[in-house]
Each structure stands twice: as structure tokens, then as C-alpha cells.
Design a protein that fits this description.
It is built from 5 helices and no strands. The chain is mainly α. It starts with 8 loop residues before the first helix and ends in a 5-residue tail after the last helix.
Length: 95
Amino acid sequence: MPERLAAGPNDQQAAEASVGVGRVASALIAGGAGIEQVQLVLGHASAVLTLRIHAHLWPGEEDRTRTVMDAVFGSLRSGCGQVDQATDEIAGRAA
């Protein structure tokens, strides 16, 4: 059985840098940044590369649909979920 190699200082630095980049990407996407903007900030060669790495962070159509429907019909719910400040803001209601 081959011996497991210990992580060197460069491996640790690379892992920490990767976590930092992931946090930057996550913050940008959560803030509404588009693919091209995230690509530019992260220094990726193409938007395709950005999507291959970070596509899971962008909200999907299901997420957007759920948010809109909650905003429109949220008041009809009877205890089957929480209506939060973000939902009220999306619906144009003051929180």
C-alpha cells in the first residue's frame, strides 16, 4: 500500500487560496453579479470556465419561480412556511 504524502506548505496555501476564491465568487453571485463580472474579478479566461466551477452558486429557474410565487401568494399560506424580509422586499412591500 503506498504511503500517503504529507501536504506541503504550497498545498496548504493553494487550498486556502481556493477557499478564498470560492468565498469571493459566492459573495459576488449572492450580490447579483453576472457571469461575465465574476469571470473578470476571478481572472478566468472564459465565462465557460467560471460556470464549470461556480454554476451551482447561481440561483436556478426553480429558485426564482419559488421566490416570485412566495412573494405574490405568501399571504395565502397558513403556516406552511416562513415569509421573511427578502420575500416582502421582492413583493414590493415594506418590511
